[in-house]
Amino acid sequence: NAGVTQTPKFQVLKTGQSMTLQCAQDMNHNSMYWYRQDPGMGLRLIYYSASEGTTDKGEVPNGYNVSRLNKREFSLRLESAAPSQTSVYFCASSRRRRGSPNYGYTFGSGTRLTVV
Amino acid sequence: KQEVTQIPAALSVPEGENLVLNCSFTDSAIYNLQWFRQDPGKGLTSLLLIQSSQREQTSGRLNASLDKSSGRSTLYIAASQPGDSATYLCAVRLADRGSTLGRLYFGRGTQLTVWP
Q1: 3-state class of B101 per DSSP?
Q2: What is the pLDDT of residues A34-88, one digit of tens each?
Q3: Is the predicted pLDDT of residue A101 greater than 50, yes or no?
Q4: Do B91 and A110 touch (CB under 8 A)?
Q5: b/e string for A14-48 if b means 16 or more Cβ within 10 A?
Q6: Pairing mode, if any, of strands A42-49 and A56-57?
Q7: FRET partner for A75 with CA separation of 20 to 30 A, picked from A44, A91, B41, B75?
Q8: Min CA distance, B46 vs chain A (Å)?
Q9: Quick count: other Cβ atoms within 10 Å of Cβ B66?
Q10: Could B43 and A94 be called an inter-chain contact, meaning their C-beta atoms sit closer than 8 Å?
Q11: Does any CB of chain B come closer than 8 Å to the CB of residue A47?
Q12: B25 burial level (CB within 10 Å; 0-12, 13-18, 19+)
């Protein structure tokens, strides 16, 4: 089925370890996003990529880096994990052009990350 | 900055009731508004997308309305069922304005429980 695929689904890291969260979409969307979801905080934007080759910071970028590898793939990297980065991470994609018939977002199923 | 508020935060009702979930936003210069459903431990599933030029959208027992000038949207669920139990999130997408680049702003959700 078409959609947004995230890997891994679950991960436990020790403080200071690094890891990369992978995201791929097969809907030919231009824009891709990384959000984190925390209890009581809602969803907050970490980084986004409006189109292939561009990336920009969102609300909470500190401690993260991203790579827009190609139009399909957008990865999120934690260089030195901290307990404050324990969260559920969601990748999303959307069309960018206003004339597109469905200008909404599609979300992946999430990655549950625990940093101990 | 766009602020999105959802009321009530939680709702518990018996099966069969008709429900109204409310969403309000502070910046009326939106491009569209999207309602999502999130089941515990799962990702976000898009329910309805309303473009700023539209007044409402319907899908099965769900109807979402949009009053852009007053900064409000409602999600109406008819004849509620236990399977409707989930958290419902409202998100608005601003018109592309350079730095915002069409990002979504989320409310914190309404947690709905429908009991048999």
Answers
A1: coil
A2: 999 998 788 999 999 988 888 999 889 999 999 998 999 999 999 999 999 999 9
A3: no
A4: no
A5: eeeeeeebbbbbeeebbbbbbbbbeeeebbbbbbb
A6: antiparallel
A7: B41
A8: 7
A9: 24
A10: no
A11: no
A12: buried
Q: Tokens at residue A72, please?
A: 């399909």
Q: Looking at residues A20-46, what average pLDDT do you find?
A: 92
Backbone angles phi, psi at B6, to 5 degrees: -120, 135
Average pLDDT, chain B: 91
| CA dist list (Å): B106 to A43, B25, B43, B61 | 6, 10, 14, 23
Interface of A with B in 1-30 (CB under 8 A): none
Question: Residue B100 is encoded by which pair of tokens?
Answer: 């915002």
* Percentage, residues of chain B above pLDDT 90: 73
CA distance A61 to A58: 6
Q: Which residue has the higher pLDDT, B95 or A76?
A: A76
And the tokens for A106? 């599609």
Q: Is the peptide bond before B14 cis (omega within 30 degrees of 0)?
A: no
Overall residue count recorded for chain B in this entry: 116
CA–chain centroid gap for A116, Å, is: 21
Kindly report the three-state secondary structure assignment for every residue of B25-87. ECCCCEEEEEEEEECCCCCEEEEEEEECCCCEEEECCEEEEEECCCCEEEEEECCCCHHHCEE
**Beta bridge mates, A101:** none
